[in-house]
Amino acid sequence: MAASCSSSISLRPDRIGLRDRALGVSSDSETFRSISFSSHLHNLPFKSLEKRGHVHSLRMSAVVRADISEQMQIDISLSPRVNSVKPSKTVAITDQATALVQAGVPVIRLAAGEPDFDTPSVIAEAGMNAIREGYTRYTPNAGTLELRSAICHKLKEENGLTYTPDQILVSNGAKQCILQAALAVCSPGDEVIIPAPFWVSYPEIARLSDAKPVILPTLLSENFLLDPKLLESKLNEKSRLLILCSPSNPTGSVYPKKLLEKIANIVAKHPRLLVLSDEIYEHIIYAPATHTSFASLPGMWERTLTVNGFSKAFAMTGWRLGYLAGPKHFVAACGKIQSQFTSGASSISQKAGVAALGMGYAGGEAGTTMVKAFRERRDFLVKSFKELKGVKISEPQGAFYLFLDFSSYYGSEAEGFGLIKDSESLCRYLLDKGQVALVPGDAFGDDSCIRISYAASLPTLQGAMERIKEAMVLLRPAVPV
Ligand SMILES: Cc1ncc(COP(=O)(O)O)c(C=O)c1O
């Protein structure tokens, strides 16, 4: 395949294997100052060689070794936007644990944020039928009318929210919805208010949108719920977006309606402030806790962007399907970004999404079965960790995570490992010693905790618990508990 490159680059002759000595070019006696690429010899074509300032046109069969790239003076700097963003720690740890498993180490992986259930068969069938029936073309950018109408129906029935299909944007996952929303509404210097512990992507999404994340800490003793007074004290004319996540990743906390009402009263005083309500875990909730959509509160519909998706409630992480609902003005702006970015979500996944929403309230029987299993696992883990000295727990009311305070162990030494000084070293220790993969709390903005995902079977969790206990007894809490 022909390639062309007009740039002039510096090369050392010893890096060029000149095969054709008949050309009379001595690679060791001459210094080539530059070589300019312009034509075709597979991917490494060149036309002329400049020798001591004189240009010699050569037909040469030279082999430029793969390490030629070392010699190219290429500017490899990246944009400030990339440099401002941290890679996802949850993805990094999951990848590390997967690599260990592939290398034969029997690691129990409790780091990932995805249900361990298969996508319900009725949904999978709908996806397969879409392929069989040739439903494999581009859809409208905002998503099919069929799916957007089904989403409107769902939001009305389950959340008490009234939207029309032109107020819905379907994207390749909820993550894309959140990024597009932030890109659409934030101007440089705006502030995005994020209660901590937070889902790892929120601050990075704020930075990608040229906004400044403003992190508001919460307390385990307050079930990691945002203190309205703290919120009030931090709001100003730069505050543009408040991100709420209930049920929460990573804490499993669920915001009671009364607290949301207090937050709404504060939000109402700030005309520039919008709210992004991430409700992706709404159906993974343990009674008596109930879910309230922020947009359903008086005066909040106009300023709320509700994000939801199929990944968690319907075990559809790989299908990449999520949606945003909000006032048309904002939704259209997000759609404009999407139209130049990814276009519409997969036609196949959208058909599957329609089937998912047709399964009944909160995913029908399949949803109930999944939540029942999650609840059993939560109960097991809460009981087990309560038996472990020095660990503080706020019992989660939703999602499938426990966010546990292990900070009483910081400062202790482990034989053959060294100092446990923070959540990261504790997670490394548990991976080394116990072969259990967990995520350090500092990834979520709270270094005193670690996150354990219970999207794994009960026997797997029982095995993990034994390993964690065995590893922890080898440590002495550094502070009396
Ligand atoms: C709180 C929260 N919001 C959004 C997402 C993104 O979900 P999706 O798979 O739809 O992009 C996740 C995924 O882990 C999440 O935990």
From TrEMBL:
Pathway assigned to this chain's UniProt record: Amino-acid biosynthesis; L-phenylalanine biosynthesis; L-arogenate from prephenate (L-Glu route): step 1/1; Amino-acid biosynthesis; L-phenylalanine biosynthesis; L-arogenate from prephenate (L-Asp route): step 1/1
Organism: Tetracentron sinense (Spur-leaf)
Sorted UniProt keywords: Aminotransferase, Pyridoxal phosphate, Transferase
Identification of the protein by name: Bifunctional aspartate aminotransferase and glutamate/aspartate-prephenate aminotransferase
GO MF assignments: aspartate-prephenate aminotransferase activity; glutamate-prephenate aminotransferase activity; L-aspartate:2-oxoglutarate aminotransferase activity; pyridoxal phosphate binding
Source taxon at top rank: Eukaryota
Keyword Amino-acid biosynthesis included in the entry's annotation: no
Annotated family: Belongs to the class-I pyridoxal-phosphate-dependent aminotransferase family.
Required cofactor names: pyridoxal 5'-phosphate
One Pfam family recorded for the sequence: Aminotran_1_2
Domain Aminotransferase class I/classII large: 106-467
GO BP terms in the entry: aromatic amino acid family biosynthetic process, prephenate pathway
